[in-house]
Task: structure prediction
Amino acid sequence: MQAKPFSPAATAAPVDYANYPDEHGRFGDYGGLYVAETLMEPLAELRDAYLRLRRDPEFIAELDRDLTHYVGRPSPIYHAERLSKKIGGAQILFKREDLNHTGAHKINNTVGQALVAKRMGKRRIIAETGAGQHGVASATVATRLGLECVVYMGAVDIERQKINVYRMKLLGAEVVPVTSGSKTLKDALNEAMRDWVTNVADTFYIIGTVAGPHPYPMMVRDFNAIVGREARAQMLHQYGRLPDVITACVGGGSNAIGLFHAFLNDREVKIVGAEAAGDGIETGRHAASLAAGRPGVLHGNRTYVICDDNGQITETHSISAGLDYPGVGPEHAWLKDTGRASYVGITDNEALSAFHELARSEGILAALESSHAVAQGIKLARDLPKDKLVLVNLSGRGDKDVHTIAAREGIAL
Amino acid sequence: MNRIDRCFAALRAAGRCGLIPFITAGDPSPADIVPLMHALVAAGADLIELGVPFSDPMADGPVIQHASERALAKGVGLRQILDGVAQFRTSNDATPIVLMGYLNPIEIHGYEKFAEEAIVAGVDGVLLVDCPLEESAVIAPLADAGLHRIFLAAPTTSETRLAGLTQAARGFLYYVSFAGVTGADRLDLAPVRARVAAIKARSPALPVAVGFGVRDAASAVAIAEFADAVVIGSALVAYLADAPDARIACDRAREFLSPIRTALDARAPRHAV
Result:
C-alpha cells in the first residue's frame, strides 16, 4: 500500500482541511486517478486548466455573476420554527439550496464546469444523472452557452424520474438510456466515461458529484463550497455564532461536501452525513457506502464502495435515485476515517415521514434525497436542548418526486 | 525467465508477429475456460489474455460488457479463473497467460494473496485497465511476486508519460490503437504505425502489441507490418458468445483464429531493427 500522507497521531498541528487533496488528488488514502490510459492526459489538461482558472480573477468574476444573476444566490437560511417546536429540541435551520434555479444545489457545479468547458474550447457537454437534477442542471448550462448536451441516465432512473427526463428534453439535451448493469446511476457514469474516452478531443464531461478521478472531486467540491461559505457567513450574521451541528444527505456527496467544507476547520461544529439506508442496512437493500461498505476502487477513485467478496459492485437500493449509488466521494471517505465527520443511515420510510413532516409544518416539499437530511436533522434536534442550532442542507426541491411518493402511497395521479 | 519474455524472444528470433487472443473468462460458460485456452493455442495463439469479469467495465464496449455480465451471472470470479489457469498449466507450460481486468476484484481479494496464488497457478502477467502508472504503487506486490505488469499506451499518451511507461513496462507494451472503448470500429492505421515507430525508436527492446479494433485477418496483417503482436478481443468474444457447449465454443475459436494465424504466417519474416 502507498504511504499515508496524513496520520493524525504523527501530526502535531491540527490538519488544515483546506489543503486537501494533495497534488495527486488524494485525501489520505482515498481519491487518486484510477482510469484507463487514454484519459490520463485529458485529465491532466483539465487539472491544469482548472488550477489556472480557479485563481483567474476574470473567471471568478464571471462565475460570481452567474451565481448571483442566473442561479439566484445567495440562498437563504431559514429557521423552521414550527417544525422545531413540534420536535421540541434544538432549533432546525435550513440552507435553502432548493430555491436555486433548476431546484437544487447541482447548478452551482454545472455553472462552474460549463465555464471551464467554454474556456477549454469544448463544444460538447456530456453528463451522467441519477435523479435527473444534475442532468437538468447540465442541460440548462449547456443550452445557455450554446453547447451540445448528451445526458446518460439509467433506464430504471428514467422510469422513476420522468419529469426530469422531459425537462432535459425541453432544454434541448439528448437523454440516452443506459441498460447495462443495474441500469442506475453507476451504469450511467460508466457509459458517460465510455463516451468521454471516445470523444475526448471535443467533449467536456461534467461529473455531477464529488467522485471520479482527480481533479473532479476537488473541482466539484470547490464549485459547491459556496453553500458552506455562504452558510457560515449567514450564521455569524443572523445568529452571531456557528451552528452546533450541520447535516446533509450523502449519495456521491456533492451537496454534503458543499456544506461541510467551510466548516471543516471549525472543530466545535459537529458534522453528520445522512446516507440512504433504503429498507434498512441490515436487509442489504441500501446505498450506505460509508456506513456499510469497504475501501475499494470504483469510477476512477479509491473510496468506500458497496461490493461483494469478489470485488463486484453490488446493486444498491434507495427510494431516492440521487442517493442510489454504490460509491461515495473520496473526501467523505477520508472525513469518516479521520473522524471529522460521521455518517449514518436513514431508511426510505424515515425519509418519507420527514418529507411529510416538513411539508405539513413548513410548507416545503423537499426532494427525497434532501428528505434524508431532514430526517437526520430532526433526529439530531430531538436530542439537543432548545438553544442549540442544527443546520440542514435542503439540497433540492421535491416536485420531481411527487409521482414516486404518490405511487408509494397507492395514489393514482 | 518469465514466459512472456521467452515468447517474445522466440517470436523475434523467428521474425514472426505474435497473435494474442482475448477471451472473457467464463463466457460463454465457466466450463469452457480450460478447453477454450487449449483450442486457442492449437489455432495459433502465442499468448492468451484472459479477461477477469468486472461489474463496471468502464473501458469496454458492449461486446465485452455483455460477456462480463454473462460470466458474472454464472458466478465466475478470480478463484475459478486461477483454478482454470492451474489446470491449463498441467498440460501447457509454455503459452504465457495475462490476466486483464479492473482493480477492485484484486483489491478486495488482497494484492499479496492474489500475487501468490497467481504465480502458483501459472499466470505470467497482469493488465489492470484502471490502474495507471501513477497509481501502481498499490500493485507492487504483483511485480514482487514475479508477475509482469503490462501497461497500456494510447494515442493521447504524452511523450513524457510514454518515457515513464516504456521504462516501467515489463513483457510488452500494449498500444491502444484509438481513443475509445474495446470493440469499436475506429481503426486508422497510419497514426498507429507512426506512434508504434516512435515507441520502438525510444525503446527498441520492448515488444509492442497493438489492440482495439482488430477484427480479422486483414486488419491483423496490416498491423503485423509494424507491431510485434496483435491483440484480438471483442470480435472473438462476439464470435464465441452464443456457443451452446464447450466443443462448439472450441470449434468456433479455431474457426476464428486459424485464418488469422495463417495470414500472419504467410508474411515474409520481419526482423527487428
User: Anything to note?
Assistant: Chain B touches chain A through 46 residues (CB under 8 Å). Chain B has one domain: 3-265. Residues 3-265 of chain B form a domain with the TIM Barrel fold (CATH 3.20.20.70).
